[in-house]
Write a structure and sequence with these properties.
The complex is a heterodimer.
Chain A (H helix, E strand, L loop, with lengths): L1 H15 L1 H21 L14 H8 L21 H16 L3 H11 L5 H8 L3 H29 L1
Chain B lengths: L6 H10 L7 H13 L1 H21 L4 H10 L1
Classes of the chains: A mainly alpha, B mainly alpha.
């Protein structure tokens, strides 16, 4: 198994370089993880991240008590070149890794593994509504993190 | 059916429509709200680009960056 892997890695690297090797390895890993979640005996019961204070506070702080945005939302600048696109992707990656545990897991199952909300809920022993709520929190959390990172990134330049 | 929807409620629908088709009432509410609310329209645009970015990051894709690079030349 190891020999095969090393051989594949060497040849693959020679032929196509590291970037597509990552894509290739990621695709294999992705199928393994999806299979693991889908296997019938696998039902992972998780804790609903409702108690995550920092993310809840950050989202609450966006709104007035009436549910309007407390501060006007500014448009994001689109990346204009390869370097800016790379920075943006690195920022999104960093922000994803900071999501609370279950929130991040649900987000990955949706956006990486491509599971439907109902399937995620079933696999993790959550209600569909809890699952939608976690996806919403994940996205709003990422939004805030990326916005914060962009602003601070510019200040440093 | 009330058409007045808070931005906070709108954001839950913006997220939800990325995962599943909304019912007719929610779709209408959201469309009416977005047509009048620039903040929520920007949030919708941001969450769409985040979805694309997250999927690219998770798929280990750099080709979008490469496309941009091509257009620089």
């Amino acid at each position: 198994m190891q020999d095969t892997l090393i051989e594949v890695l060497q040849h693959h690297e020679l032929r196509t370089g590291a970037a597509s090797l990552t894509t290739w390895a990621t695709a294999i890993l992705k199928h393994k993880v999806a299979d693991w979640y889908r296997s019938s005996q696998r039902r992972k019961e998780v804790q609903f991240d409702a108690g995550d204070g920092a993310l809840t506070d950050a989202i609450d702080a966006l709104y007035t008590p009436e549910g309007a945005y407390a501060i006007p939302i500014a448009s994001w600048q689109q990346p204009e070149n390869r370097e800016e696109q790379r920075q943006m992707m690195a920022l999104v990656e960093r922000c994803m890794s900071h999501l609370p545990r279950t929130t991040g897991r649900v987000f990955l199952m949706r956006e990486w593994l491509g599971f439907e909300t109902r399937e995620i809920a079933e696999r993790l022993g959550l209600s569909a509504d809890n699952c939608r709520q976690l996806l919403h929190r994940a996205r709003m959390g990422l939004r805030g993190c990326v916005e914060h990172g962009q602003v601070h990134g510019r200040q440093r330049q | 059916m009330s058409l007045s929807y808070s931005c906070r409620q709108a954001s839950t629908l913006i997220s939800r429509q990325q995962d599943e088709p909304l019912g007719i009432a929610d779709r209408l509410r959201l469309r009416v709200h977005l047509s009048m609310c620039s903040n929520c329209s920007r949030v919708e645009a941001q969450l769409s680009s985040l979805k694309r970015l997250a999927r690219d990051v998770l798929a280990g894709r750099t080709d979008r960056a490469d496309e941009l690079d091509e257009s620089d030349r």
